[in-house]
Amino acid sequence: MTKNMELGLFISRVMLGISFFIHGFAKFQGGIEKTAGWFESMGIPGFLAYVVATIELVGGVAMILGLGTQVIAVLFGIIMVVAILKVKLSAGFLGNGQMAGYELDLLLLVLSTLLALNGSRLYSLDQHLYPLRSKKG
After folding, report:
1. Residues 6 or more apart whose Cβ sits within 8 Å of residue 20
2. pLDDT tens-digit profile of 70-123?
3. How many CB atoms lie within 10 A of CB 67?
């Protein structure tokens, strides 16, 4: 992989991690019980709000650090697919005036897919924990 490609993956990894971390933090800061109630109002079990918020918060930090990037990216991707299908699809791509559309969710899904397929070794903890994997082409 070229240096430019690795740099692009690194930037994508850090920005995706920051985005998910902030969303997870906001869920806990705003009262996770409110988020759980909102999940239940959409027919999603409330306990999944805790699961999603934890994945976003802890996974965001792990993504920034480059720890388990591909696994975390898959989890982020699952969250985005559910968010798009269950919450945002009815609002349309750009939104409907009452709710934002799914354009940002789709971009987060695409970035998650990119990192799930390719990983990101530049400045990552994975590179130091699993040095033999970095020799792959």
Report:
1. 55, 56, 57, 59, 60, 63, 76, 108
2. 999 999 999 999 999 999 999 999 999 999 999 999 999 999 999 999 999 999
3. 17
Annotated domain spans of the chain: 3-127
Q: Amino acid identity of 93?
A: F
- pTM, two decimals, is 0.92
Could you give the 3-state DSSP secondary structure of residue 92? coil
Site of tokens 């996974």: 59
What letter represents residue 98's amino acid? Answer: Q
Report the 3 state secondary structure along 15-63.
HHHHHHHHHHHHHHHCCHHHHHHHHHHCCCCCHHHHHHHHHHHHHHHHH
Tokens representing 73 are 């990216």
> Which residue in this structure is represented by tokens 């994508």?
12
SS3 content of the chain, % helix, strand, coil (to 5): 75, 0, 25
Tokens of 17: 């991690």
